[in-house]
Amino acid sequence: MDQDMEEQLEDLSLDFNDDEELELDSGNNNQNPGRIDLYLVGRFFTDKSINFNAMRTRMAEIWRPVKGVHVKDSQPNLYLFQFFHEIDIQRVMNGGPSLFDNFPLIHKRLQEGDMPTMV
Fold first, then answer.
1. d(CA 27, CA 108)
2. What would the pLDDT profile of 37-91 be if each residue is shown by its tens digit?
């Protein structure tokens, strides 16, 4: 490592008080929070309950969205997936079937006027 870089690294610090939050930028800055066309609504083809936290983590690992995905539990076994870039949602729509615990995810891209609970 060259000398200049070592000096710059020595000057780095993460100082914050206990009552302050450490905020990390994940590149997910909600640039398009109101774009309904960046949402998918879906449910898993099962009668069993789904572990929401495990599913949310696993779907993000499978899809690997560049700008991230936010998942909301809308109703029992009905989920709302918010993407933050057109490329990410297109990859999910054009990719193969999405599975969680071997249960397929049946999903639809929302359009203007759609009610997520009625899809």
1. 25
2. 999 999 999 999 999 999 999 999 999 999 999 999 988 889 999 999 999 999 9
Contact 52, 23 (CB under 8 A): no
Nearest residue to 70 (alpha-carbon basis) of 44, 52, 87, 91: 52
Specify whether the CB–CB gap between 32 and 40 falls below 8 A: no
Rg over CA atoms, the chain:
19
Chain centroid to Cα 105, Å, comes to 15
Tell me: pLDDT of 28 over 60. Answer: no
Dihedral sign of CA atoms 112, 113, 117, 119 in order? negative
Asked if residues 59 and 71 have their Cβ atoms less than 8 Å apart, the reply is: yes
Cβ-Cβ contacts under 8 Å for 119 (sequence gap 6 or more) = 41, 108, 110
Q: Say which residue the tokens 């774009």 belong to.
A: 35
| 50: its two tokens | 């789904």
